[in-house]
Write a structure and sequence with these properties.
The complex is a heterodimer of chains A (116) and B (78). Chain A starts with a helix and ends in a 12-residue tail after the last helix. Chain A is an alpha+beta fold and 116 residues long. In chain A, strands 2-1-3-4 form a 4-stranded mixed β-sheet, with helices on both faces. Chain A is globular, with a radius of gyration of 13 Å. In chain A, a hairpin with a 2-residue loop joins strand 3 and strand 4. In chain A, 47% of the residues lie in helices and 15% in strands. The longest helix of chain A is centred in the first third of the chain and has 14 residues. Chain B has 78 residues and is of the alpha+beta class. Chain B has one domain: BolA-like (GMP Synthetase, Chain A, domain 3, 2-Layer Sandwich), CATH 3.30.300.90. Chain B has a 3-stranded mixed β-sheet with strand order 1-2-3. The termini of chain B are far apart. Classes of the chains: A alpha+beta (116), B alpha+beta (78). Chains A and B meet through strand 4 and helix 4 of A and helix 2 and strand 3 of B.
């Protein structure tokens, strides 16, 4: 796929799914600790999300970095908007901001955030 | 390919001279770091913007020679 085609494909994924996690491995079998942490948080919150395993496609693995202008994976998108990588998602989760964001965007989840 | 903690700090320092920077080598392999950066330059920026400012300061090393950098960014309280 050309870079343009990869970006179009990414755009389609984040338009078709409310929550998309670009990660190394899959939600059931993460292959990187950082990706696993975000998958775990989403699972804990009971969010229905689409996982995209960037290890399946070198084009997507590099393409998502350019697309988001963000150098690392995982990357979380909610309603087409880039939320952040592992550190930001974890921090937002711990401070209750992640559920706030999901509520604001009208994304269903089953549990409130853990608050310190 | 590992990277020295001093080099990491000086790259951030060059961009944010006033910053409080704390760097920890997590695995002792020069490849997995945690950094806390506090600077007034973050004021009014979102977390994503703050992290991008640090990534910019690292001039492409993040995700390349530097595999993992756990980032915490804060604005100083006045």
């Amino acid at each position: 796929m050309s870079e343009q085609a990869v970006h179009d494909w990414i755009r389609k994924q984040i338009a078709a799914n409310d929550v998309v996690l670009f990660m190394k491995g899959t939600k059931n079998f993460p292959q990187c600790g950082f990706s696993g942490q975000v998958a775990q948080i989403l699972q804990y919150l009971g969010v229905d999300y689409q996982d995209v395993n960037v290890l399946d496609d070198m084009g997507v693995r590099e393409g998502i970095k350019a697309f988001s202008n963000w150098p690392t994976i995982p990357q979380l998108y909610v309603k087409g908007e880039f939320v952040g990588g592992c550190d930001i998602v974890r921090e937002m989760f711990q401070q209750g901001e992640l559920t706030e964001l999901l509520d604001d965007k009208g994304v269903k989840h089953t549990k409130p955030s853990a608050t310190a | 390919m590992p990277m020295d903690a001093k080099e990491l700090e000086s790259l951030i320092r060059a961009r944010f001279p006033d910053a409080k920077i704390l760097i920890k080598d997590l695995a002792g392999d020069g490849d997995h770091y945690a950094a806390q950066v506090e600077t007034a330059a973050f004021k009014g920026k979102s977390r994503v913007q703050q992290h991008k400012m640090i990534y910019d300061a690292l001039e492409g090393r993040m995700g390349d020679v530097l595999h993992a950098l756990a980032l915490t960014t804060t604005v100083p309280k006045d």
